[in-house]
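In the design runs reported in the main text, the only information available to the sequence generator was the tokenized backbone. The following block is the verbatim input for one such run; it is reproduced so that readers can re-run the procedure and compare outputs position by position.
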């Protein structure tokens, strides 16, 4: 009995010495935002509103290995002021990154949302930054597989495929990004049907503390476009943006973001359209 115990213990020690040590790091993620808003067109007879938009929570788990990094992520949005608190799953995916190659699977952001919805040209006070192009592109895709290839820091190529057994034809999209200190250029392509494939572009040009950003979505014709100018200060960003959705009149956005800490932003923004309907919002956004 003693000899048997020694043999088993010896095998266990040998296995533990040869197996890699698992060191999974799990970190909660989230975003909370509170703002006071004035709207010229009253909502339920109220011009002043207290809002908490764009709130979400999640968790990210990372496992580093000698030959790559494995990441799992889950995220859900919610409306803090609703009568019944419900979580709306927004993303859930796993990611394997090894050198210049990265593989994703799950409920992923679409390539258009990843590369065309640029945070610097977005406003914080409305959904999806108030971008005109956002109205014509998918935010997420379920049952998706994505592969990225990055050549240094200059080139990124991505492809995404949706595996939906309810559709006869697979949905797929491609993206390419060229980056440099002077800016970046991104283009996306989505295979929809034979005659209406969708293209998207985003250009960002940087000169000193100023940046010019433009994004478009094209499908037989230009569906929407956004144009913005930002000025970067030591701890603040001011911007002026103009958005056009189809044949509608344009929408103006003006604001300032002040980075109080790495996680906390104070913002003040005005959004108004050709009918002079406007919304002024000011508040704080906490991200972690």
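Verbatim output:
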């Amino acid at each position: 009995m003693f000899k048997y115990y020694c043999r088993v213990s010896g095998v266990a020690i040998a296995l533990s010495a040869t197996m890699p040590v698992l060191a999974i790091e799990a970190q909660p993620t989230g975003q909370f935002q509170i703002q006071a808003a004035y709207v010229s067109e009253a909502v339920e007879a109220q011009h002043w509103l207290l809002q908490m938009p764009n709130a979400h929570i999640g968790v990210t788990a990372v496992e580093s290995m000698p030959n790559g990094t494995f990441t799992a992520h889950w995220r859900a949005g919610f409306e803090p002021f609703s009568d019944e608190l419900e979580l709306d799953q927004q993303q859930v995916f796993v990611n394997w990154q090894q050198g210049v190659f990265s593989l994703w699977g799950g409920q992923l952001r679409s390539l258009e949302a990843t590369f065309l919805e640029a945070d610097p040209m977005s406003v914080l006070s409305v959904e999806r930054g108030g971008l005109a192009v956002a109205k014509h592109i998918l935010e997420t895709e379920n049952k998706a597989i994505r592969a990225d290839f990055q050549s240094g820091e200059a080139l990124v190529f991505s492809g995404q495929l949706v595996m939906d057994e309810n559709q006869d034809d697979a949905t797929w999209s491609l993206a390419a990004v060229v980056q440099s200190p002077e800016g970046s250029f991104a283009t996306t392509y989505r295979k929809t049907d034979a005659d209406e494939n969708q293209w998207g572009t985003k250009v960002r040009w940087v000169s000193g503390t100023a940046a010019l950003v433009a994004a478009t979505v094209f499908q037989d014709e230009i569906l929407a476009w956004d144009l913005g100018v930002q000025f970067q200060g030591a701890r603040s960003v001011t911007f002026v943006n103009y958005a056009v959705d189809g044949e509608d009149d344009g929408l103006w956005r003006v604001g300032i973001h002040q980075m109080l800490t790495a996680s906390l932003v104070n913002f003040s923004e005005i959004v108004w359209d050709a009918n002079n309907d406007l919304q002024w919002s000011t508040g704080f956004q906490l991200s972690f």
